[in-house]
C-alpha cells in the first residue's frame, strides 16, 4: 500500500485528514552538519569527543549505511540523528533543512534497536496489531488498521507466520530473521517517514541479513522512506543494496556519499578496492586501527580522514547540506508535533492492559509458575501444621503458622523479579519510541497483578487454612484471604520499587530478600515490640507491612476462639490467664493481649496496608519517571 493510499484511508467525512498522516510524508531530507558529540571520560574531568565534524544528508527512497569498525561511533551518530543521544552535542540535525523539535522527530521517525524487544507469547499478527494500537490514533477505522497490518505482513513476507507465536524459551516460534522482520514491520506500522536501524543484521547469517535488508530496501523505495542503518561488515550482496554509505573511524568521517562513487574515490587515494573482494570488508580493514600494526594503521587513517576533509566529494556534500537548508520551500518545511498520530493516554492504557493480560496468561513465567509454587507451599504448610486443635498446646503452632504463612508468602514474591525486569526492559524501549510513559506502564502492572494475586491468595488459603484448622467460619476465612492478598500485593509492590531502583536481576533479588528478612525481624513476632531495640522499632517497625498482616491474621484467629487448658492429675494448667480460667479454658483474646494486639483495630490496619502499598507504588513511579534506563 502506498503512503498516499494510507493517507486517503484516514480522511474523515469533512475531507480533512483526521490522523494527519499527510504531514508525515512530507520529509524531503534529513541532513546533519558539523556534528560533535562529547562525553565525560571515566576518571577524568576532561570530556572526550566521540564524534567530530560529521556531516551528511539522506533522502527519501534511499538507504544509507553507517559503517566503521567497532566503537567508531555508528550508534552514537544514529542516536544523535534520532534525538536520542545524551551528552554534549554541537552541530545541527535538520529535517527538511530546519532544526526541528524532538516531538517532530518522534512523530516522523521510527527507531529499530539492535535487540528485538518482542513479546514471545504474542503472535506475529498480534505484535503488529498492538504496535498499530500504540502508534495510531483512533481516527483510523478498525478495518483500515487490519488492512495496514495485513499489508505489512505481506510486504515483509510474514503472511505464513501471521499466527505463529514469536517464541519464548519454552515455546519455539519465529526464526531470528523473521523476528527481525517483525521488529522492523512493527516500527513501520505508524507510517513514519524516517527509519533508523541500529545493526539490523546483527546475530543473523548472511542470507537472513540480505533478506531483511532487501525487504527494507523494497519498502523504502515503495513508500519513499529515508532509511539510515548502522551496519557491521555486510556481505557484498547486502552492501550493494545501500545507496549511500557513511564510513567512520575513531569518530571521524572517512567517506560519505554514493556507494557507487566509493571505488573511484578510494582508487584516487591509491587505496583501490580489489576486484574480487567484498568492498565493505576491505574498507573496514582499511580504517580499522585495532588489529593492524598500530602506527602504520593510524598513519593510513589520518591520511584517509584528511583526504576526505579536503576532497571534492566532501565539498559537494557540504554544498548539498547547505542547499537543503536554504532551498526548502515553506510548504515542505512545515512539520509540526501535531503531525503525531499517537493515541491518548486512555487508549495507551487499554492497549497495554490487553497486551499484558494476554502475556500474563500465555507466559507461564509471569504468574503460572508462581501459582504452582504457592500451591506447593500451601500443601506443605497445611500438612506440617495439619489439623491443629483448640488446645493450649496448639496455640503457639497456630501463631507460628500465621507468621510463617504471611512472612514466607511475602518472601516468595522475589520470584516476580525476573518477570518484572522483563516487562521493564520492554517498557524502557517502548518509552524511548514514545509509545507510552511510566504512568501507563505502572498502572497496568498494578491492575494486571490484582486478579492473579487474588487467585493465588484464595487457592493458597483453600488448601492451607482448612488443612491447618484455622478459625472455621466463613468470615474468618475471607478475612484471612484478604490479609494474604494485601500481603502479596504489598510484597509485589516492594519488588516493583526495588527492581525499578536496581534494574538488575541479582541486585533486585538480593535487596528484596534482604528487605523481607528485615520485615520478618522487626515485625514484633520474633522479637516482641517492648523488647525491640528503639532504632529498629522507630525506623522500620511501623511501616513494616508484614506487621499488620500478622496482627490482622492473629486477631482473625484468636479474637473469638477458646482453647482448652491442660489437665494434669485433675489439676487445670492454663498457659494464659483469662476470664475463662475457671472453665479450664483460655479466651483467645488473652493470647492477643500477650502480644499487645487490640481487637477492633483491623480497619485501621487495613488502611495502613493500603497506604504502604500506595507508598511503594508511588515511589516506584517517581523512580521510573526519573530513571530513563
Ligand atoms: N555515554 C558514553 N560515555 C562514554 N563513552 C561513550 C558513551 N557512549 C559511547 N561512548 C564511546 O564512544 C565510542 C563510540 O560508541 P558507539 O557505540 O557509537 O560505537 P559503535 O560504532 O556503534 O560500536 P559497535 O559497532 O561496537 O556497536 C565508544 O568508544 C564508546 O565506548
Question: How would you portray this structure in words?
Answer:
This protein has two domains: about 5-330, Rossmann fold, CATH 3.40.50.300; about 345-625, no CATH class. Helices cover about 55% and strands about 10% of the residues. The protein contains 25 helices and 14 strands. The strands form four sheets. Strands 6-7-8-3-9-10 form a six-stranded mixed sheet, with helices on both faces. A four-stranded antiparallel sheet has the order 2-1-4-5, with helices on both faces. Helix 17 packs antiparallel against helix 23 (about 545-560) and helix 20 packs across helix 21. The radius of gyration is 32 Å and the shape is elongated. The chain starts with a helix and ends with a helix. Adenosine-5'-triphosphate binds next to helix 3. Adenosine-5'-triphosphate (ATP) binds near residues 50, 73, 87 and 230.
Outline the secondary-structure elements.
Elements (H helix, E strand, L loop, with lengths): L2 H7 L11 H4 L5 E11 L6 E12 L4 E5 L6 H8 L6 E8 L2 E2 L2 H7 E4 L11 H12 L6 H14 L20 H13 L5 E5 L7 H18 L2 E5 L5 H4 L4 E6 L2 E7 L3 H7 L10 H9 L6 H16 L2 H15 L3 H4 L11 H18 L5 H17 L10 H17 L5 H16 L5 H31 L5 H28 L3 H18 L11 H6 L5 H14 L3 E3 L1 E3 L2 E3 L11 E3 H8 L6 H25 L3
Parallel strand pairs: 3-8, 3-9, 6-7, 7-8
Antiparallel strand pairs: 1-2, 1-4, 4-5, 9-10, 11-14, 12-13
The structure holds adenosine-5'-triphosphate.
The site of adenosine-5'-triphosphate (ATP) has 13 residues, from helix 3.
